[in-house]
Design a protein that fits this description.
The protein is an alpha/beta fold. The protein has 13 helices and 12 strands. Strand 8, helix 11 and strand 9 form a beta-alpha-beta unit. Helix 10 packs across helix 11. The mean pLDDT is 90.
Amino acid sequence: MGASLKEIAERVGISAASVSIYLNNPDTNRVSAGTKDKIDKAAEELNYRRNLFASSLSRHVSKVIGIIIPTNIPLFQNVYTNMLLSGVQKCLAGEGYSLLFFPSSASTSKENVREQLRHSAGCDGYILFSTGFCPMDHILLNIRELQDTGKPFATLNVPKVPETINQVIIDDLESVRGLEFLLNAGHKKILMVLGRQHGEHMQLILSKYRLMLKEWGIPLDNDLVIFGNYSHEDTYLKVSRFLTSRRDITAICCMSDLMASSALAAVKSTGMTVPGDISIIGRNNSLYAVLADPPLTTIDLSISEAGFKAAQLLLDSLENPSISRNIILNGKLIERSSVNEN
C-alpha cells in the first residue's frame, strides 16, 4: 500500500498541509524549490500514489471524464467501439484529462446508467456512449439521467434527439448508402446483413431500406434481411445457411466490416467467388476491410473523428456550460475490389 501525506511529511520534516499544497499544485510559491525536491524524493521512496478524486476536492476539478455505457455487456472486443473511444481518449489526453468507465450490473439500460452515475460523482462531465442495444425511449431516459446530474455531457453513437444537448451525429449510421451503391452498380437481388434487430439505428435503416426498394421498384423480400448482431459467428452461420437454399443473390450489403468479412468467408466456403459471383460491401473502413481478400469496398464513417469531436464538445461545455451544439459527420465511400457491376 502507498504512503500517506502524513508519512511523507514526517520523512521531510514539514507539515502534512505543506505536502498537500505542493502535491495538489506543483506550481505553488508557498513551498520552496528545495522542499519540493525533498517531497518528490520522499513520495517516490515511500511509493506514494495520489488519490485523484480526493486531491481534487479543494479545487472542485478532477480532470476526469466519465464514459457512460448503458449496458453491462463487454464491448471492447468490438473494433467499432474501440475506434470511437480511441478518438475520445486522444482528445482528452491531449488536454490533460483522464477517462474512466464504471461498473454496473443492472438489467436495463436506464438502471445501468443510474448505477454508473452513482459511482462517478467526482467526474467533471460525461460522454454518453449509446449502443445498438438501445431503442430511442431508452436513449431519452438515459439523457434525462445525465441532465439530472447538472454536469456537462455529450452524446456519441446516438441518433439525433429532439433535445438541446451536445451531440455528435454520425450521419451514415442510419443511412443505406451501401445499398444505394450496389443498386447503382446494377444489383437487384441484395442480401442485407444488419446489426442488432432492436437497436434504434437498425430500425431507422430498415425503414430507409424499404423506402429505397420501393423507389427502385423492387419487391420487398423479408428473407433478404438477416441480423448478424455485429458477430463473426452469427453472420457466418446465417449467411452460410442462407446460401444453402438460395443462390439467386448477386450482392451482400453489411452494416459492419466485421460482418462483411464474415459474409466473405461464408461465400468462399460454398465455392463461389467475390466479386465474380457475389459482390460485398461493408461499413466502417476498418482493418477487416483492408486485410480481406479481396479488400472490401466500404463506407468510412469517420469513427475516430466522431469520438474526438464528442470529447471536444464536452471540453468546450466545461469552459462554457451554455454551449450546446450538434456536429454532423458524413461518411465517405471507399471503393476497393469486392464489388463488380452486375
